[in-house]
Amino acid sequence: MTRALFIVDVQNDFTEGGALGVAGGDAVAAGVSRLLAARAGDYALIVASRDWHDPESDNGGHFTADEPDFVDTWPVHCVAGTAGAEYDPEFATDAVTHHVKKGQGIPAYSLFEGTTDAGERVAEVLTAHGVTEVDVTGIATDYCVRASARDAIEHGLHVRILTDLVAGVAADSSQAALAELAHAGAELATADAE
Q: Which residues are catalytic?
């Protein structure tokens, strides 16, 4: 079995104080760094994604200047080249093998919708390395973590959500997302219980 680690959108705009900051975001960043310091060698690939939105457009209707519905439309966030789009400073990225940018001009939630710095699609990278299992961490449980995990399941991977290393927008929708993923075949685990 070959295992990968997904680190979804641990960015300044999604952690405390950011444009769409979630409670517990900084703790996720620090926790992922601890996991990497202790066990990066357990993973054949370590894939970190970032929203990376175009500064000069509404990114396919993803941004709105009006009232966002926080489902399909959002305030401006994670604009390419801004501090908000950068990784949270608590997240030590040294062990990351593949950096993925997603949402470049379009709405994108799953890291499978992005490309690596070398222009590769995530599915291609996973297949090329024989990955069969993936641990999923990051932000936000009820949006991009959910979408990335769903796509990993659809890609035929055994998915494990490290529930102590995710943070969501809202408690109810995050619990619903975890339940949905478990029903779809994901394992719910914790990084500290392995």
A: 9, 102, 144
